[in-house]
């Protein structure tokens, strides 16, 4: 009964959390920047190649400058893209003019970003406001601006053009009054902030939201709890990473972007706990289970499942193993399912604090990138060793549980043969 109550409670939480329009807009909008982060990662890695005369060659041929320019126009101004994408996604989810919502998000973000006076006494934006430091300003501005635009449209506060006017022209006129409301509101907010000790919205959000979030995610206990909870959701058949993505993004995406930016600039990496560190060091759990099935299990069903799941597991795809064993809704598998990612992240943390594993460089790898090899691109050769250690740990943890599962499977197969 308690088990069913837990299942129902988690299912309700997952549905409510995943279906919240603001969480969906935040998650989908920030996920929309993944392609930019991957582009930046590729050229950052190219620019970081330092074998013999490679750096001198790339500098003399302009390759290094090209790589730095691409990095600057992607990761160093990532908040600009976030401001547009989050607002755009909110408009799309709420079935309004998504493009105008995105423009309102940009407008709000630019108004909130402080202007600085240069040596020539001209006004300019500091690029630092557009990078990882401006993420929460972008989120605040884009969500509020898009919601205000949608509210104005819903209340008919728009200029209605005749039906004969082309839609793209009519939409432009329809955005004028909502746009004025957005501009005035955020200009007032920006002005009021100049009268406070913080000076800007970015500084205030940094103090009260961004920094506390950083502290919340900047410890091993948060990382272990999150990765274990992701697998608990998987146990009930819910996609754990997708469900938890808004929280993961809020906790560790800003450090991820900050590390990538520092890595591209050749500076010291500031953060241990990042998006890549937490999700990339959960261990090759499904690969460990697949190897158990193939080489240690006597059950024909488990052997077949291991063979079927091996190749997907090599690329970080766990569904064949999770549903084939099954680990989903199998109480015998719950403990190792939650324990292995937590222990794997802990091992990466310990290897880092003893000085063996360098900080994750912020490089974002595409979904389905081969496990073990991925460690090289994010942590160098030490990353390969760390992920091999995690594979061994996962394999060891699963030994007693897979033995018991094999006994159940063999008994089930023997019973089926008798009945046949």
Summarize the structure.
One of its GO terms (cellular component) is plasma membrane. The protein is built from 20 helices and 2 strands.
Explain what you see.
- The chain crosses the membrane at residues 33-51, 63-86, 98-118, 130-152, 173-200, 220-253, 334-359, 379-398.
- This protein is mainly alpha-helical.
- The chain is 73% helix and 1% strand.
- The chain is built from 20 helices and two strands.
- Strands 1-2 form a two-stranded antiparallel sheet.
- β1 and β2 form a beta hairpin.
- The two termini are 35 Å apart.
Question: How is the topology of this model organized?
Answer:
Elements: H1 2-19, H2 21-31, H3 34-48, H4 54-61, H5 63-72, H6 78-93, H7 98-112, E1 115-117, E2 123-125, H8 135-154, H9 167-174, H10 176-194, H11 201-217, H12 220-235, H13 240-264, H14 275-280, H15 285-295, H16 300-314, H17 319-324, H18 331-353, H19 373-379, H20 381-419
Antiparallel strand pairs: 1-2
Helix pairs in contact: 2-6, 3-5, 3-13, 6-7, 6-8, 7-8, 7-10, 8-10, 11-13, 12-13, 12-18, 15-16, 15-20, 18-20, 19-20
Task: Name the descriptors.
420 residues; mainly alpha; two-stranded antiparallel sheet; 73% helix; globular; PTS_Sugar-EIIC/EIIB; protein-N(PI)-phosphohistidine-sugar phosphotransferase activity; transport; cell membrane; Permease IIC component
